[in-house]
Amino acid sequence: MQRRKFIQQTFHALLGSTLSTSLMGYSLDAFKDIIIGHGTHQYKVDLNWGALNAQYYPVNDCHEMVQDSKGRIVLLTNHTKNNIIIYDKAGRLLEVWGTDYPGAHGLSLSVENGEDFLYICDNHRHEVIKTTINGKVVMTLPYPKDSGKYEKADQYIPTESAIAPNGDIYVADGYGQQYIMHYDAKGNLKNIFGGRGEGEAHFDNAHGICIDDRDSNNPTLLITARQQNKLKRFSLDGKLLDITHLPNAFICRPVVHGKELYLATLVSKLPFNSQSGFVCILNERNELISVPGGSQPIYENGKLKALHQTIKVFQHPHDVCVDDDENLYVAQWNSGRTYPIKLIRVSG
Amino acid sequence: MNQLNKHIAIYCSLLFSSNLFGQQLAQLNDFQLAAPLVQFESQLFQEDLTISASVYFPDAYITYTIDASEPNADSEPWNGSLTITQNTLLKVQAFHPECQASELIEIPFFKVNAITDIQKAKLAKEPSPKYPGKGAKALFDLKKGSLNFRESAWMGFEGEEVEVHLEFQKKRSIQKVTASVLEDHASWIFAPSAMIVWISKDGKNYEKVEEQIFPLLKENLSSGLKFLSTNMDEIKTKYLKIQVKSIPAIPEWHQGSGGKGWLFIDEILID
């Protein structure tokens, strides 16, 4: 890295020199770390985090990431040489596994009796697969034939799952018929809601789902309707409760961390066709407070102004993982097979 | 602060900015600004048009030109909004002291007269049911589509020509016909190869008055809005037929080589 060499040289030069302050001022200006985001949630950018030798550990799309109970960062990619890549927080490779998930898309962590499990939504297999953290398959949820909503597996293209505190499993069919499946912990279908259609209780690209337990007495579901640029809150039994509109933003999956909600945003509607994208961060009232890589949140008469990319840090962010240091990892779709980008929180 | 302390402070900031706990952090000059967001009612306007442009990255600013020259960091700075009253080719770009300049955005704006004397407008062949638009009359409503071909302002024709028959309230003078079309090669949408204008005394028997062939297509990865005009000697007619010809086959440099291309049209302007 040329730039790094230059900085090191500058550093060495400074160590033994009596450079004038104006010259030092110049070198500081020219190599200023980029900071993205707004207010309390601003970040420096590490583009090299997790970069591996693509000959041995290749990725296609980096679809989703979670942090496991040991603090490790688990990445899901649709490359069948290593569907799961596990890193430490510094981006060092720890482990890879998984060759059977050609349509690996959704990754959720569930801690059950102290043990970590992963739920993988596979677009190509039309299934949701539960595995141990080491990759041993413990349950497979096929297409929900019994629901009566599906004639064949092809119509079911699950994109995301979420596990409720009682072990119930929710699956969003975001690339298929737009239903939300509600199973018990053993995989028996209890309820089905949503689906394509007119009206706010329906979806267009129900891409991501999570349990919002920020109000611990009253957990609810948050589901993205990506094509509609909306985040929809449902009760655990499938009743629409409220809607948050993020105009222009194609939000992928909601991720709860602390009091905030994080959403990787694939692209914005305007400018059209741009290879854009950014991250949205909402507070506990689901008000937008920071947009790393995008335009600042501006509310006019209670309405949020349309969002768009401002600096080309990201190309199609598909998921964001928040670690226990409040740093972010951004996995990207169709970005030229790049590894995730790490964002390091700075005090705002 | 004495000189030594100052040096130490700078060392520390360099150390931490470039190499925080072994991380190599990206710097401003690693990145390009995203293009400014330019917003306006329509590229076609009648009296005047106000255009706004914004860029939200700290220390970024926009400059612009309207004299066909390329803007640079020292060009006229953009100040909130711009109102135009005549045909304008706007070029805007965003700059930053450290980041790379955004891509250049070029948008033509046309001052047009509303066509109020069309009695009948008819398409010889309907567009593809996938992209039906809003009927023949909508080609003359001055409501332009954007780069998004799925918008209802656009009519899409697969491998077919667009043929519009117009009947005016009475004989009128015509000097120029302009087709507003979309070019989006990645979506198999191509600009037309020719435009032919016919006139008629009775709406049945037509006489060709102008044929304009457009240059061969070059490969183009980005998409764009195009205005293709035919200038002719002034004609007077009550009946007009306009044919906008699709390319005969997709050019060989395209992955769909030899197949049918799409033609997307949203407006026809008559002066």
Secondary structure layout:
The complex is a heterodimer of chains A (348) and B (271).
Chain A lengths: L1 H14 L5 H10 L4 E4 L2 E6 L15 E6 L5 E5 L6 E4 L5 E5 L6 E9 L2 E8 L4 E6 L4 E5 L18 E4 L5 E4 L6 E5 L5 E6 L14 E4 L7 E6 L4 E5 L5 E6 L3 E9 L2 E9 L9 E5 L5 E3 L8 E2 L2 E2 L12 E6 L5 E5 L8 E6 L2
Antiparallel strand pairs in A: 1-2, 2-27, 3-4, 4-5, 5-6, 7-8, 8-9, 9-10, 11-12, 12-13, 13-14, 15-16, 16-17, 17-18, 19-20, 20-21, 21-22, 23-24, 25-26, 26-27
Chain B lengths: L2 H16 E2 L2 E2 L12 E3 L4 E2 L3 E6 L6 E5 L10 E2 L3 E4 L3 E8 L9 E7 L6 E6 L31 E4 L3 E22 L10 E7 L5 E8 L10 E22 L16 E9 L1
Parallel strand pairs in B: 4-10
Antiparallel strand pairs in B: 1-2, 3-5, 5-8, 6-7, 6-9, 9-10, 11-13, 12-17, 13-16, 13-17, 14-15, 14-16
Structure in words:
Chain A has helices at residues 2-15, 21-30, and strands spanning 35-38, 41-46, 62-67, 73-77, 84-87, 93-97, 104-112, 115-122, 127-132, 137-141, 160-163, 169-172, 179-183, 189-194, 209-212, 220-225, 230-234, 240-245, 249-257, 260-268, 278-282, 288-290, 299-300, 303-304, 317-322, 328-332, 341-346. By secondary structure, chain A is mostly beta strands. Chain A has one domain (34-346): TolB, C-terminal domain (Neuraminidase), CATH 2.120.10.30. In chain A, strand 7 and strand 8 form a beta hairpin. Chain A is globular, with a radius of gyration of 21 Å. Chain B folds into 2 domains: 31-111, Immunoglobulins (Immunoglobulin-like, Sandwich); 118-270, Jelly Rolls (Sandwich), CATH 2.60.120.1190. Chain B starts with a helix and ends with a strand. Mean pLDDT of chain B is 88; it is low at 1-20.
